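Support reply, case 0932

Customer input (verbatim):
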Amino acid sequence: MVIFLGNLTISLETGDEQVLRGIASQKYKSKKGSLAKVIGESLRLLSKQGARERAMERQFRWMEKGFAMGKILAKKREDIYDRR
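Our regenerated output:
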């Protein structure tokens, strides 16, 4: 398996950088690559949430459209049970 690693340069506000570094040090104890791991985990989580939201929207559209459940041909209960 070949893994390609990319380099990114990002600019964060001071508060956001402190939050990122705090999460990374809390979770990975200041190990090398901890910032990249936290950012990668966040991206995967956002991706999952996006996929889940799209699936929910699709399901709600189907529900609003409705389903063809067939027609009831009998008008009276007696017609269904053949009682007269």
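We compared this against your earlier run and they match. Two observations from our side: The chain has one domain: 14-81. The two ends are 74 Å apart (CA to CA). Please reopen the case if you see a mismatch on your end.
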